[in-house]
């Protein structure tokens, strides 16, 4: 077997033998997965809430330490 034939056969086998698990089918844009959408927005809102709470706590602690409050 020549090198080109061997190489082309290896490329064919590697392309045919592996398929990405993440792109098995194209997503349906007309019917979104509402559970995943809600989970994404809920997680985002939860993290923003934690961020604001932590900022408020840190600001209060800073003011108390420096005698501003």
TrEMBL record:
Membrane topology listed for this record: Single-pass membrane protein
This protein's GO CC annotations: mitochondrial inner membrane; respiratory chain complex I
Superkingdom: Eukaryota
Keyword Transmembrane helix on entry: yes
Keyword annotations: Electron transport, Membrane, Mitochondrion, Mitochondrion inner membrane, Respiratory chain, Transit peptide, Transmembrane, Transmembrane helix, Transport
Annotated signal peptide: none
Compartments it resides in: Mitochondrion inner membrane
Ranges annotated as spanning the membrane: 34-52
Pfam families tied to this protein: NADH_dh_m_C1
PANTHER family, A to Z: NADH DEHYDROGENASE [UBIQUINONE] 1 SUBUNIT C1, MITOCHONDRIAL (PTHR17097:SF0), NADH-UBIQUINONE OXIDOREDUCTASE KFYI SUBUNIT (PTHR17097)
Known partners and oligomeric status: Complex I is composed of 45 different subunits.
Record function comment: Accessory subunit of the mitochondrial membrane respiratory chain NADH dehydrogenase (Complex I), that is believed not to be involved in catalysis. Complex I functions in the transfer of electrons from NADH to the respiratory chain. The immediate electron acceptor for the enzyme is believed to be ubiquinone.
Family under the similarity heading: Belongs to the complex I NDUFC1 subunit family.
UniProt-recorded name of the protein: NADH dehydrogenase [ubiquinone] 1 subunit C1, mitochondrial
Record organism: Neolamprologus brichardi
